[in-house]
Amino acid sequence: MTKILRMSQVYAPTLKEDPADAEIASHRLLLRAGMIRKTASGVYTFLPLGQKVLAKVESIVREEMDATGAQEMLMPALQPGELWHESGRWNDYGPELMRFRDRHDHEFCLGPTHEELITALVRNELRSYKELPLSLYQIQTKFRDEIRPRFGLLRGREFIMKDAYSFHANQESLQQTYDDMSAAYGRICERLGLDYRPVQADSGQIGGSVTCEFMALAEAGEAELVHCTCGYAANTEAGSCLARPTEYDVPDMQKVATPGVHTIDELAEFLDIPASSTVKALAGKNGKGDLVVLFLPGDHELNEIKADRAADGFTLLTDAEMEAYGLPKGSMGPVGLPKEAHVIAARSLQAVQKWVVGANEDGYHYVGARLGRDFEVDEWADLCIVQPGDSCPECGLPLEGARGIEVSQVFQLGDKYSRAMGATFADEDGAEVPFLMGCYGVGITRSLAAIVEQHNDEHGIAWPFSVAPAHVCVIPLTVGDDVVQPAAEKLAADIASLGLEVAIDDRGERAGVKFADADLIGWPLQIVVGKRGLAEGKVEAKLRRTGEKKDVALAAITELMAYGKRSGRITTSGAGYFDGLFDR
Ligand code: ATP
Ligand code: MG
After folding, report:
1. Centre of ligand 2 from the C-alpha of residue 296, in Å
2. Judging by beta carbons within 10 Å of its beta carbon (0-12, 13-18, 19+), is residue 396 exposed, middle or buried?
3. Which residues surround ligand 2, an ion (CB under 5 A)?
4. Which residues contact 446 (CB under 8 A, 6 or more apart)?
5. Does residue 49 register a pLDDT over 70?
6. 206: pLDDT confidence band, cut at 50, 70 and 90?
7. Per-residue pLDDT for 205 more than 60?
8. Does 278 sit in the ligand 1 pocket, CB within 6 Å?
9. Separation between Cα atoms, residue 67 and residue 61, nearest integer Å
10. Which of 233, 386, 235, 375 is nearest to 297 (CA)?
């Protein structure tokens, strides 16, 4: 039988007040609920209740990893610098890498990730294509000297990650494992109770690497994304932008005096039209130093990665260079550009016949400059940072904006590390070739914080059933008497015998304190046992998630819960167990 958690014994110092430096819900509530404490900037201790949740998150991740066939192992956090020199990352990783020397003056670092270590580990012992594919993983503490550790567990300098690495003889095999891992990551998010979106992260990069980030939707997230009901989701930096410019219909090209107008906002205000009806211009040089002029819908920003790709390198002109070309800052346009200018425009402008755009003369703009008659575009390209309201590239519906927390990421590394570090195997023809590798990371502690970001209210945390420190908390209103406490103790034991984890708040605190703490800590179900109720054979059940309360016959509780369990409707919210109590 599971041990009952006695709150009189549990070290869970709860706080009534919000800690001063905790800006977001997860940080604030994990501190207040007595689950974590700060040790140093970006470094946290897990107290017993926090540790219970952590263990549950870990075991869900472990189960899903094991189900993919990956094998658990454990590598050291302490890594010899020499391996990082081999991969080239001793220099490339930057100051986030925590480095030091041992007493023999050898370079070491505390691992922020383990590609080097695992590649070195297998390079002399994983020898044949017959042993491939192979996936190994660990759940382990990582160190990154983040420039701005913040938001509690979301961005720490010491944090727990599950990292997996896979080795393959060919691309099909890598793709297969990548797909399996992606599916496992989706299941992990679901089991953790996270509302998430898998986001194609890096499609914009030249020679794009294949990668996907799993984003838990939350206002506290640092990532900006767009998503659609059809399932499409993208980081705003990587997503393809199909803007929806609004055509400003005028009879013909007119040159308009726009004194003092230098920005899109000023232009829109001056003409009293939406910014999306204007066209903005950006002049730069490509990789060869030739003049390139880009045009975008006025209400969109340039995506530099995309510009770089479209123009073959793109850097904005300096003021002096603009002047040398005779280009007026703030009123550039496609009509009358220098002959050598290569003109690239955002694809969504292709549908706009008449442009509201600069006249290449300070203080003047054109209204209704006609594409194909008054000017030409040399090339159409994806240039903008996608934003909410743009059309979904998959289905055309307007995209919604959201913020997200990157809880995990899957990545096809190819032969980047195996080639640099000489990790090869013998293929079917006996030739020595570098492995293809994948790596897959889940932020365990970050996921825990993301769960709290999505499951809280003004009273505290509302843990999903799957990760709660215990499923049910029995709250006797009085202790030390011979009616209420014995009844509560028996009830707790009976519920525990169903296989549920039970806490009992047997502290000699006032009822109000116990209720507040129970809401703060976030047990999915609370059962309050009081003298008056008992006289009628009743106790009060409260579902934390909804706040719903119900008087239930004490004699029927375990039977009602067992019914829920038998019905097989157990979800992350634990609804199956608790349904019967609430007449569902
Ligand atoms: P970020 O862009 O947020 O800095 P990352 O892309 O550098 O993260 P990865 O190298 O992909 O992180 O690490 C895998 C996972 O580890 C991330 O998806 C995230 O959940 C977690 N993680 C990374 N950095 C931190 C951190 N400083 N604190 C807590 N968790 C982290
Ligand atoms: Mg990442």
Report:
1. 30
2. exposed
3. 409
4. 153, 154, 155, 159, 405, 406, 407
5. yes
6. very low
7. no
8. no
9. 10
10. 386
Give the whole-angstrom CA distance, residue 100 versus residue 88: 17
Helix, strand, coil shares of the chain as percentages rounded to 5? 30, 30, 40
- Vertex 300, ends 294 and 301: CA angle to 5°? 65
Q: Which helix (H) or strand (E) holds 304?
A: helix 304-311
pLDDT tens-digit map of 391-431: 998 999 999 999 999 999 999 999 999 999 999 999 999 99
> How far is it, in rounded angstroms, from Cα 489 to Cα 492?
5
- Could you give the C-alpha distances from 455 to 50, 262, 282, 527, in angstroms and in order? 15, 46, 44, 20
Q: Which residue in 456, 411, 454 sits closest to 436, CA to CA? A: 411
Q: Are strands 158-168 and 436-443 parallel, antiparallel or unpaired?
A: antiparallel
Q: Residue 544 in contact with residue 525, Cβ under 8 Å?
A: yes
Please state, in angstroms and rounded to a whole number, the distance separating the CA atoms of residues 136 and 402. Answer: 34
CA distance 223 to 236: 8
Question: Among all chains, which residue has been given the structure tokens 């990421």?
Answer: 409
Q: How many residues does the chain have?
A: 584
For residue 146, what are the CA distances in angstroms to 43, 78, 342, 405, 444?
Answer: 11, 18, 41, 16, 17
Ligand nearest to the CA of 407: 1
Banded model confidence at residue 240, pLDDT cuts 50, 70, 90: confident
- Give the pLDDT confidence of 75-122 residue by residue, as tens digits: 999 999 999 999 999 999 999 999 999 999 999 999 999 999 999 999
DSSP string, 419-435: HHTT-EEE-TTS-EEEP
Answer yes or no: pTM beyond 0.85: yes
465 Ramachandran zone, left/alpha/beta (phi>0; psi -120 to 50): alpha
Mean per-residue pLDDT over the chain, rounded: 93
Separation of CA 233 and ligand 1 centre (Å)? 19
Ligand closest to 443 (CA) is 1
Ligand 1 atom index nearest CA of 146: 27
